[in-house]
Amino acid sequence: MELISKVKSFGGEQRVYRHASKSTGTDMDFAVFLPREALDGYACSSLIYLSGLTCTWENVMTKGFPQQHAAEHGMIFVAPDTSPRGEAVANDEAYDLGQGAGFYLNATQNPWKSNFQMESYIAEELPELLIDSLPLDEDAIGLTGHSMGGHGALTLAMKNPDLFQSVSAFAPIVNPMDCPWGQKAFKNYLGDDEATYAAYDACALVASEGWEKDILIDQGMADNFLEEQLKPWAFDAACRKAGIDLTLRLQGGYDHSYYFISTFLADHVAWHAARLD
Ligand SMILES: N[C@@H](CCC(=O)N[C@@H](CS)C(=O)NCC(=O)O)C(=O)O
C-alpha cells in the first residue's frame, strides 16, 4: 500500500492510499480517516462508506464531513472508489455505466468482467488489506453508502453478515431489478439472464438472505431520483414481510446531494458506533 497523502484532522489523520488490486487488476485509491486512538495503536471500530454514481473517495471526505464524527466515536472511516479506473479499463460515455459506476458487483460480461469486480474488492480484498495494515477491530466493521453505494452497502452486508456487523444507507437504490439505473447496469455487467440479478438486489436479498440486526435508512423527500430510481417503500415492504427491523426516516425537503448526507452523517456514525462498540 502506497501512502499518497496525509493531513491532520480533528486530532486524527486523513490519509489516501493506493494499492494494486487483485480483484480489479488495477491500482485502486481509497481514503481513510484514523482517529487519535488508531494513531496510538488501539484497535478501533470502522465504518466503510460506499459512494454513489460519478464519485470517488473524495466526495464524502470533502463534502460529507465524516472526520469530526468519526473522531468523536474513535472510529475509523474508510471511503473506497466506486469502480476500477484507467485508460486500459472499459468505460462508457454515460455517467451511470463504467468508470464511476461499478455497482458493487462482479461483472460476468465483456468488456467489463476483466476489471469490474467490485463485490470481491469491497467484501474481500479491501477489508483484508485494512485489517492487515491498519489498527481495525475485525469484529467491528460497519457498512454504509449513498445511492448506488447504499445498494452496495445493503447487498454486501446481507451477503456477508460475519464481516459486516452493522448496515445503514442514504437514499439507497433498493430494488435495482426494478429501476432504470439498475436494469441498465445489470444488463451490461451481468448479461441477459435475469436469474443472476437477484443476488444483487436488496429487496430480493431481504427475502433470501435476511438480516438478523436492524437497519437505518435516511431518504430525502425532495430527492429527484426518489420515484423513478430509489423507491424506498419497496424495501420497507420487503423488510416488513421478512420481519426485519428497518428504521426508514423520510426527511422532508432534503434532496440527493451531499447537503443531505452531511446533515445526517453524524447520526449514522453514532448509530454504527452504538452497535459496533
Ligand atoms: N447529477 C449527476 C447524477 C449522479 C449523481 O447524482 N450522483 C450522486 C450519487 S448517485 C453524487 O453523489 N454525485 C456527486 C456529488 O454530488 O458530489 C450527474 O448527472 O452526473
UniProtKB/TrEMBL annotation:
- Classification via InterPro entries: AB_hydrolase_fold, Esterase-like, S-formylglutathione_hydrol
Tell me the Gene Ontology biological-process terms attached to this UniProt entry. Answer: formaldehyde catabolic process
Per the record's keyword annotation, is NAD included, yes or no?
no
Uppermost EC category? hydrolase
What residues make up the catalytic site?
Answer: S147 (charge relay system), D223 (charge relay system), H256 (charge relay system)
Q: GO cellular component terms?
A: cytosol
Please state which protein family the record places this protein in. Belongs to the esterase D family.
Q: Which purpose does this protein serve, as stated in its record?
A: Serine hydrolase involved in the detoxification of formaldehyde.
In Swiss-Prot or TrEMBL terms, this protein is called S-formylglutathione hydrolase
* Source organism of this protein record: Cohaesibacter gelatinilyticus
